[in-house]
Amino acid sequence: MRLLLAVVLLLAAGPAGAQIATYEQGLIYDLDPPALQAATGRSNEMVVGTAQMEPVRDLAEGDVLRRAARPVGRLVYRTTDGKTSFCTASVIAADLVLTNRHCAYAMQEAMLWMGYLVPRSRVGVAQYPVVLPPVEINETLDYAILRTRGRVGDEWGTVSFSLAEPRPRQSLFVVHHPGGYPQRISLGGCRAADPAIEGDDLMHTCDTLPGSSGAPIFDMGSRKVIGLHYSAVALQGLNAAKQVKRIAAISQTLARLTAETEPPTVVRAAPSLSEAARMWAEIRDTDNPSLLKLFGEQYQGTVQAALALDRLARLEAATQPTTPAAKRSPQSREADPEDADAPLTRLAATTPDAGTPPTTAAATTALASGRAPFHACDELAAAPNDERRVWTSPPKVASAAGGGEAFWPPSPARGVEWDAIGEAAVEACRTAVKAYPNEPRFWTQLGRALDKNDVDAEAVYWYRRAAEADYPIAKYFLGTMYEDGTGVAKDLPEALRWYRSGAESGSASAMFKLGRWYQNGIYFPKDMSTAFEWFKRAADADHAAGTNMVGLLYDDGNGVARDEAEAVRWYKRAIALGSDSAMNNLAKQIQDGAGIEKDSEAAVLWYRRAIEAGNNVALGNLGWLVARGEGAPTDPEEGARMIYQSIARGNAHSRDRMVRGQGSRELHRAFQRLLRDGGFYSGTIDGSIGPQTRQATQQLFNTDKS
């Protein structure tokens, strides 16, 4: 047994056995942990001897220990007191992980991070939200089994368990995330104590730190898990793990898993020559000095041990530095990425920075002006309604031929529509945030990319961070999250607060949203005059939908005095801003001669333009014109097809007109044939809109639109 040389951290008072790395700040979505907080209380993790914990990233890709470490991840969670804490967890099934009970019992939300090997790098890293409450939890044996959202085991594999009785001085290794930092492996001096067993516990000398709770204790020979690390026993100078065999005796989940994978155990007093040869065949190409040294010690006296020590000597000779480490300049040390998280005994240091922005001339100019230059994040996630988005070139301004009023659509606005945001946007925007850590534009766009990819809670974090930095569109996005209850509890007063703040900061989308709330009586009584004021403010800020809505309210005399000519003017202005709804509305004005000269052919032209822009209401409106030959040749079959498609896509106006029996009998017969061919109607094709046809029309309208 080795003596205790250092107690690394005194944690805040908590439940007995708690051994968690806890931080006052930080989020479960942050890649790198903040500095460990200074605290007082009980010592729960210790270094036994010297901190012999090697970065797993230093192992070769095919190294047997690196393969064993792959199913082990970092568990990050927010506690009931709002702090961020770290433990370690092992993947044991497709969507299950094993950790300590004292890590799980106070969780409010949690995230499993897999493949976190290098500080400040998300390459190869994956996140899996944890579903609460735990599947199993037991205080006596301090274990918890948690379910992940997503099949983590399919991608990262699972650990294997052994029910064998641990032997005194048995060679072990531990894979863990001490302090929440990149994955480490404890090898040197890592053995079972003598005696190895104390009650339910496996006593061991493997080095751990806060954050190692829940780490798997592997048998070196079989590379199977025989213990679940959970605590330190300060008086004995040892660390303690719960035996897997004891957990499997009461856990239905673990009992099933060990029954599926555990072969009959053969206990030997000492390793045989054949075992040394078999193990050497697996590690003979390793470049890991600790593994070679450990092998030489465990299989001392065999030919394979001699080969291991010879390879170790050659590796050490080949890696001697040509320049003494003491002569390295301070600058080279600061720039060395491998030194970013070492040594782990300096866990009270400040959080590593997010990176240094590029120093190109464009970047320097942009930073001097307070804005980052155009980035792939802009190309993949910029919102079209973000007034502060960056363009690769200035947007084109619509102009009218002959100096008249502009109402033709301008060139397509830069920015990415919601449905076009892909997974690549997340990585691009994380890169942008890392390069320009003080740019709210990138925080907002990262939030939008995460929002689209259903990483809702983290999206709320980035929206909030940008909103609190007074970025207008982020306030609007944060308001929508509170309104919908996405990634955060639904809270209409909080949504309203952010919409108002966004509107006052200049977000036209927030102004439009407030108009909608007053129009529909959301949260407060319906008030069309106030709704009109907000829509008008949005329109004055060149919000296309707001501009179209001003036209509609003038058209209907709702919240403002009716003025059809003024409605036409606002519709034209909305068209210039790209509103396809305004194209449809202008077409209807021209069709009816309301506020503008009646012209059926011009109406058909505008309906077609609206349809080309994706407007479904225009498709139905044009169908009714074509069916009766107004502004186009009479064609009931083509008119019925347009109306049918429009209703199938959710056009309630055309549905209601058909159910009421509007249109000719020829149109009705053509429509009934389409209903029959679509499987909605089995009655007579007689052109009579009776109960069966009305029911079939409603079924068509209810068709899944996804």
UniProtKB/TrEMBL annotation:
GO biological process: proteolysis
Enzyme Commission number(s): 3.4.21.-
Presence of the UniProt keyword Signal in the record: yes
Keywords from the named record: Hydrolase, Protease, Serine protease, Signal
InterPro entries, per the entry: Mitotic_Regulator, Peptidase_S1_PA, Peptidase_S1_PA_chymotrypsin, Peptidase_S1B, Sel1-like, TPR-like_helical_dom_sf
Taxonomic lineage: Bacteria, Pseudomonadati, Pseudomonadota, Alphaproteobacteria, Hyphomicrobiales
PANTHER family: ACTIVATOR OF C KINASE PROTEIN 1-RELATED, CHITIN SYNTHASE REGULATORY FACTOR 2-RELATED
Name by which UniProt lists this protein: Serine protease
Region (Disordered): 318-341
Matches recorded under Pfam families: Sel1, Trypsin_2
Gene Ontology molecular function, alphabetical: serine-type peptidase activity
Signal peptide: 1-18
Record has Protease as a keyword: yes
Similarity remark: Belongs to the peptidase S1B family.
